[in-house]
Amino acid sequence: MPSPENSASAIPVGDQPRATTVLLQARQLGFAVDGRTLWRGLDLTLRAGERLAVAGASGSGKTLLLRTLAGLEPVQCGELIFQDRPLTDWSMPAYRARVVYIPQRPALPEGLVETALRVPFQFRVHRQQPFPLDRAQELLAMLGRDEKFLQQHTERLSGGEGQIVAMLRALLIGPDVLLLDEPTASLDARAVGAIETLVESWLQAHPQRACVWTSHDRNQLQRISDRVLSLEAVA
Amino acid sequence: MNTGYINLDNWQLGFAALLIVLNLAISVWLRLGLARNLLVASVRMVVQLLLVGFILDSVFALTTPLPVIGIGVVMAALASLAAVQRTRRRFPGIYWNSLLSTLGAAFVVTGAALAGIINVQPWFAPQYAIPLLGMVLGNLLTGISLALDRFMQGVARESGVIESDLALGATRWEAARPLISEALRTGMIPTINAMMVMGVVSLPGMMTGQMLAGAAPTAAVRYQIVIMFMIAATTALGTLAVILLAYRRLFNRRHQLCATRLQTIERSGA
Predict the structure, then answer these.
(1) In this predicted model, what pLDDT tens digit does every residue of B172-194 receive, in sequence order?
(2) How far apart are the CA of B102 and the nearest CA of chain A, in angstroms?
C-alpha cells in the first residue's frame, strides 16, 4: 500500500517516470453536506501520465470529490485549475469533454449499445468528430467482446457490461483526464483485468493524459496507481 | 333574450339533489367507502356554485376594467396554486413559476381573443371575460400540473442518464431536452384528446349551456371552436413557460443538475 498523502508533492511509488506537466489542480477544496464537513483544505495535483488513487472509507466523499473534479458539483470552497486555467474560465461542456467522469453505476439510455455509444457525438462539443466505429470495435476486441455486443440492448446488460459500455463511451470521445469511480466494482476478475489494460493503454497512447481512480480493493489500488490521496487526512 | 329557457326553483334543485341518493345507495351497498366524500363534495359543489352565482351577478355589472382584471388575477393565482398542489414533487420557487406561467399564458390568449377575435365591447366585458378566462384556466391547470409532474419525475428518475450526458460534455439544454419534450407532450395530451372527440363523443358544457339558453346550435359551436383554440394555445404557452422555468431552476448555468432542489412530498388525499 502506498503511503497516504494529501499534499501537492507526489511520491511516486510505481516505476512511472515523474511527469512534469500539471493537468489538473485542486487548491484548498472543501465540501460539506447538510452542515457536515466531508473534507477541507484539500490540495491535489494531477500531472500528465499520472495515475492517482483516492482512498477513504465509504461515506468519506470519494464520489463527491470525483464529481467535484468533473464539475458536476458546485465548488463550495477552494478552486480548480485545468491546463493552467481556472475552472470558472472554462465552458463546462468543453471542460467535461476533456475531463470525463464515469460513475460507479453508469446509467445508459434505453436502446442498443451502439446507440448509447453514439450519444456524446450528438453533443455540440463533439459534433465535429465522427463516431469512430473502428476504434469502438478495436477496444471491444481488447475486452474480449465481438461486434455483436454493439447490437445488444442496454436494458439487458449486466452491471459489469454496463460499466464496460460506459468506459468505452468515455474513451471514444478522447478525454485528457479520466475520473473513474469504482470502475470495476461489479466485474469478474477477467473483466477487471481487461478494464485495467484498457485504461493503461489509453494512458500510454498519449503523454498528456492522466487518471484518478477510487476502489475498495487495496490490491487493485496498488496495481493501478502511482500514489494515493487519503480523504481521511483531510476530513 | 332570456325567454328561451326555464328558470329553476329551489324545489327543482332539491329534486336534483335526490339523484345523489343513487350514488350513496351504490356506495353503501358495495361498501365503496365513498358516502362521506360524496356528501362533502355535493355540499361543497352546491354552496360554491350558489355563492359564485351571487358574486358573478355583481361582477357582470362592473363597468371598469381594473376590478375585472383583479378578479382574473385571483382566479389565475388559485389555478396556479391548484396546479402545483396536484404534483408529487416540489422545488424552491415552483409556486412563482406556476403563477407567472398561468398569468402570462391565460391573460395573453384571453386578451387577444376578447379584443382581437370576438371583438367584445368594451374589451373587458365581464360577461365574456370571466367565463372565458375560467374555462381557459381550468384546462391550463391540468396541462401545467401534468407537464410539471412529468418533468420533475423525469429529472428524479433519470438523473443518472442526465448526469452521464453532462459528464460527457452535454450542455444542460442537450441533457434536458428529451425530458422537456416529454413533459410538453404530456401536458398537451388532454387538450388534443378533447379536440379529437369533441362533438362526436362529448358535447362540451359551454356549448350545452348556450343551447339551453336558447342559442342556435350552429352559433354555439362557433363559440366552442374559438374556446378550444384558446385552450390549446394557452396550454401550449403555459406549459412551455412553466417547464422552461423549472428547467432553469433544476439545471444551473454551470450545466449542473441540481437534483437536491427537488423534494418529494408526502401525498395526502387525492
Answers:
(1) 999 999 999 999 999 999 999 99
(2) 32
Q: Residue A125 corresponds to which cell in the numbers above?
A: 462539443
pTM value? Answer: 0.88
Question: Measured between beta carbons, which residues in chain B are less than 8 angstroms from residue A123?
Answer: 165, 168-171, 174
Question: Residue B158's closest CA among A109, A111, A103?
Answer: A109
Please give the ipTM for the structure prediction: 0.89
Residues of chain B found within 8 Å of residue A166, distances taken between Cβ atoms: 164
pLDDT tens digits, residue range B126-180? 999 999 999 999 999 999 999 999 999 999 999 999 999 999 999 999 999 999 9
- Vertex B175 angle, CA A83 and B159, to 5°: 100
Q: How many Cβ pairs closer than 8 A exist between chain A and B?
A: 75
DSSP secondary structure string, A15-58? Answer: SPPPP--EEEEEEEEEEEETTEEEEEEEEEEEETT-EEEEE--T
A33, A68, A72, A75, best to mutate vs chain B, most B CBs in 10 Å: A72
